[in-house]
UniProtKB/TrEMBL annotation:
InterPro entries: AfsR-DnrI-RedD_regulator, BTAD, OmpR/PhoB-type_DNA-bd, Sig_transdc_resp-reg_C-effctor, TPR-like_helical_dom_sf, WH-like_DNA-bd_sf. SMART domains: BTAD, Trans_reg_C. This is OmpR/PhoB-type domain-containing protein. Residues 7-111 form the OmpR/PhoB-type domain. CDD domains: BTAD. Belongs to the AfsR/DnrI/RedD regulatory family. Residues 263-293 are annotated as: Disordered. The keyword Cell membrane does not apply. It holds the Pfam family Trans_reg_C.
């Protein structure tokens, strides 16, 4: 985050706050440590809520989650004063702060979006994705390599507090997506041989992320290793079937078939690189909702992120890319899988083809909070449970009912539209089903794919949202 500071003689100095790694303040190329962990938590909270009013009460709740001490107000003022000296080292005594300002009701970090390194990262990824979609592969690769090079470790790696942890999880999902996009660009530029080892490691570390399996298969095939490419598919299928009880997704299966028949479009130059592929003019039809007891469609990782993958754009035809799909017949509005993180809410009333956690947030002041339907409690809460988000406090939309495993989604329609409260995870198991009334007045059937290993782990759910 670059903060312009007027120096004597009219020169503009540069102070950066780096969050893509341990929280660091950099003054003129020199790193300055914020020594107190609680002061780092204050700065991180202000950065996450840049350009918003932050009340002393909100800061106190973040810094002292167990309850603020009697000296909290004075201690917070001390932290703010220290941070102001750090952010504006050349501010003269008596001059008003221009970066961390006092405003009616609290504090405000007054920074344009491009003065935060995480925002610069997200903007570079957005531009890289646009360049990739426009077949400008050199530009995309340059942007994405540079953006990923700004990471120095785990985001907010030295900051305590729930806010920093949630923002770090979001940024790290963006990093995963940026890596996928960067590999797409590198594949399009013929760098397949040098990508194989990296992709082997990514698949090993993220065994359920089918995007990297597809990229590994393509890199191996283009390197003249057809048998190894097919072996990567078989290994992924074995993992999915044995550990999750699901088959690979249709796009991964189609790639296997194209490798088997040695589709020339999989090679570099198989399609004109300078012109975009023909757009998809109609979505593929989706099957009807599965019958009770039938195997559900494969698991997909969908997590809170600002940018989303576009598929292996360098080697797969337009028909293989992720496109919005028509809702299945039989009264289903949308159907998808979602990785539910502790302490976050999720939007279930979305069209098919949109990520379910497009509005994932835990900030009641966020405009996206109005869209939430499903909430999973924080690991710090007494019980780990899921509930509906009732924005009106009228108990009109947060009905939650556990039903029998294997019940069809239509069972939800016969349940009470009020009450039900919440459902504790302690009473659930893989295959368990829960009906939830969404804020838009629809019913959603939530099916547990597998239980989380710990209260900090994600809860994988299959979601079927019924039409009104």
């Amino acid at each position: 985050m670059r903060i312009g500071i007027l120096l004597s003689g009219g020169r503009v100095g540069c102070v950066e706050i780096l969050v893509l790694g341990p929280l660091t303040v950099r003054q003129g190329g020199r790193d300055v440590v914020v020594r107190a962990a609680k002061a780092r938590a204050v700065l991180a909270y202000l950065v996450v809520h840049r350009a918003e009013l932050v009340t002393p009460e909100a800061l106190g709740a973040e810094v002292w989650p167990g309850g603020p001490p009697a000296s909290a107000a004075n201690t917070l003022q001390t932290y703010v004063s220290q941070l102001r000296r750090l952010l504006e080292p050349d501010r003269r005594p008596g001059d008003r702060p221009r970066v961390l300002r006092t405003v009616p009701g609290g504090y405000l970090l007054d920074l344009p979006p491009d003065q935060l390194d995480s925002r610069r990262f997200e903007e570079a990824v957005r531009r890289g994705r646009a360049a990739l979609e426009a077949q400008e592969h050199d530009k995309a690769a340059d942007l994405l390599h540079a953006a990923l090079g700004w990471w120095r470790g785990a985001a907010y790696g030295n900051v305590p507090g729930d806010t920093a942890a949630r923002e770090a999880a979001r940024l790290e999902q963006c990093q995963l997506v940026a890596t996928e996009l960067r590999i797409d660009a590198d594949l399009a530029l013929g760098r397949h041989a040098e990508l194989v080892a990296e992709l082997d490691g990514l698949v090993l570390a993220n065994p359920w992320r089918e995007e990297w399996v597809a990229q590994l298969m393509l890199a191996l095939y283009r390197s003249g290793r057809q048998a190894d490419a097919l072996g990567a598919y078989r290994a992924a299928r074995t993992r999915l079937v044995e550990e999750l009880g699901v088959e690979p997704g249709p796009r991964l299966h189609r790639l296997e078939q194209r490798i088997l028949r040695q589709d020339p479009d999989l090679e570099i130059g198989g399609a004109p690189p300078a012109s975009p592929r023909s757009p998809v003019t109609r979505p593929e039809a989706r099957p009807a909702a599965p019958a009770p007891g039938a195997r559900r469609r494969p698991w997909r990782w969908i997590a809170a992120a600002a940018v989303l993958p576009i598929g292996v754009a360098a080697g797969l035809g337009a028909g293989d890319r992720a496109v919005p799909e028509a809702p299945p017949v039989g009264g289903t509005f949308a159907e998808f899988d979602v990785a539910v993180r502790p302490g976050l809410g999720y939007d279930l009333d979305i069209p098919a083809g949109r990520p379910s956690d497009w509005h994932a947030t835990n900030n009641p002041r966020s405009p996206d909070y109005d869209h939430l339907d499903l909430y999973r409690t924080s690991p710090d809460a007494p019980h780990d449970q899921i509930s509906g988000v009732d924005l009106t406090n009228t108990d009109a939309f947060n009905a939650v009912h556990a039903v029998n495993p294997g019940d069809p989604p239509q069972v939800c329609r016969g349940l009470s539209r009020r009450g039900g409260g919440n459902v504790r995870l302690a009473g659930l198991a893989a295959g368990a089903e829960v009906c939830l009334r969404t804020h838009a007045g629809r019913w959603a059937l939530l099916t547990v794919i597998r239980m989380p290993e710990s209260r900090q782990a994600v809860l994988p759910l299959h979601v079927t949202v019924l039409d009104d």
